UniProtKB/TrEMBL annotation:
Coiled coil: none annotated. It is found in: Cell outer membrane. It is a lipid-anchor. Its main location: membrane. It holds the Pfam family Cupredoxin_1. The keyword Isomerase does not apply. Transmembrane segments: none annotated. Residues 5-109 form the EfeO-type cupredoxin-like domain. InterPro entries: Cupredoxin, EfeO_Cupredoxin. Residues 1-19 form the signal peptide. Keywords: Signal. This is Cupredoxin domain-containing protein.
Amino acid sequence: MKKLLVAVLLSGLAAVAHAEDAQVYKLDIKDGVLTPQKLEVPADKAFKIEVKNSGKTAAEFESIPLKKEKVIAPGATSIIAIKALKAGEYKFVDEFHENQPTAQGKIVAK
């Protein structure tokens, strides 16, 4: 029983360490302008996006294919964890400025 408990604890610690080791990609949003507009990530590997709103208005990172949505106040930074993706393209947008072409972005998993 003791060995099983130790194995479970170690596997849990490994999962936490793996999540902490996830690659972080930076995205800046400034009043409807995404920089960069395209993030290239490895397929089948979890990662995080550090989203900074350097604009004067609120921004909302939204991705329907990824089922992610996060409002970010002016001057604030937030981390969005993304599970491992299959190879492909996944669109996202600053929903508060979605009519601007510069507010459209995509993640390309290769």
